[in-house]
Specification:
Length: about 350
């Protein structure tokens, strides 16, 4: 009798352990499934329910995007079609305008879809693609502005040696290095982020951001943080150092040169400096918002300033260079006049 009771107790404990084990395993499986679901998409939580105003916002953003496309494409066509503009400065400008189109296309199509959508989610591959486009756009912008400052330094400080030092081969090499190095610098953090195990899927922005995904990680992110700081320092410090050196030399020549030299330097360097300051302001706030607690800043203001460097710079650059550089401005005037005269 005692043996039977003992067997029954052991059997019941065995069944209890068995079923508890199955229960724990099912819970573990469910957690894995939840984590897999979270990792497969992200929610952009900065959007608010604007009701019918979403159509107004959609129209405004779409108009801005179309204006950016038209402005940058027009100047690219003008530079490519006019042989008189086939000079290093305008070739670098063409690369800059192509980058403005590239960065805008990385942001606006998804932004427009999210404005009209009720559920602000984006798939993991599309989110990582947007991160690569926006980050590489920022890198190319800084590198391109640095190359343009170096070109202005050679043209103003070494005018007799300009044609021999700024050859077609060197132009191709500089543009290739600008785009290739930006792609490599921005691809590495994505590979580091892709290996992380995430404990959430909510990104408190209106577009995907690598650092916000890293902050969702349950695993060690020291490698990501170290590389992020090193890459940010490289992308900012290297171009800014070259730009600073170039403009110190340019200012030295301008103050010691003639009035004509100062006017030439002013006409070619002013749009470049304004473009650099405008983009640096937007990028600086974006870095501060990612690294520091900005909860005291109103949410709407954070969204506007977060989008500033991605929306205003692509429109600011073509307008600034198109209006301030006399050769581009004159060609555009002739084209507008010709289209007006010969239109039916």
């Amino acid at each position: 009798m005692k043996a039977a009771v003992s067997f029954t107790r052991c059997h019941s404990r065995f069944l209890e352990n068995l079923f508890c084990g199955v229960s724990l395993n099912s819970v573990h499986v469910k957690r894995i499934m939840i984590n897999a679901t979270i990792a497969s998409y992200f929610t952009l939580a900065a959007y608010v329910d604007s009701g019918l105003l979403r159509y107004l916002f959609f129209t405004l953003v779409l108009s801005l995007y179309l204006l950016i496309l038209c402005a940058n494409t027009s100047l690219i066509v003008v530079i490519c079609m006019n042989r008189s503009l086939h000079e290093p400065m305008y070739v670098f400008l063409c690369s800059l305008f192509v980058n403005e189109l590239y960065g805008s296309t990385g942001l606006f199509p998804l932004l427009l879809l999210q404005i009209l959508s009720d559920v602000h989610t984006v798939s993991r591959p599309l989110c990582f693609l947007q991160i690569f486009c926006l980050y590489s756009y920022a890198c190319v912008e800084f590198f391109n502005l640095a190359v343009m400052s170096y070109d202005r330094y050679l043209a103003i400080c070494c005018p007799l040696q300009y044609n021999t030092r700024m050859t077609q081969r060197k132009i191709t090499l500089l543009i290739t290095l600008t785009w290739l190095s930006a792609s490599v610098v921005c691809f590495i953090p994505l590979t580091l982020t892709a290996r992380l195990q995430l404990c959430g899927n909510i990104i408190n922005k209106v577009y995907c951001d690598n650092y916000y995904i890293v902050k969702l990680s349950c695993s060690d992110t020291s490698v990501n943080n170290i590389y992020g700081l090193a890459a940010t320092s490289f992308v900012i410090v290297s171009p800014v150092s070259l730009i600073f050196f170039s403009y110190v030399r340019i200012l030295t020549v301008c103050f010691s040169g003639s009035k004509q030299t100062r006017q030439k330097a002013l006409s070619t360097c002013t749009p470049h400096l304004l473009s650099l300051l405008n983009f640096s302001f937007g990028a600086c706030f974006e870095i501060m918002q990612s690294r520091f607690n900005m909860s005291s800043v109103p949410n709407l203001l954070r969204i506007i300033l977060s989008l500033y460097w991605l929306t205003c710079q692509p429109l600011f650059s073509p307008l600034m260079y198109g209006l301030n550089m006399s050769r581009i401005r004159n060609i555009c005037k002739h084209l507008i006049f010709a289209s007006t005269v010969f239109s039916p």
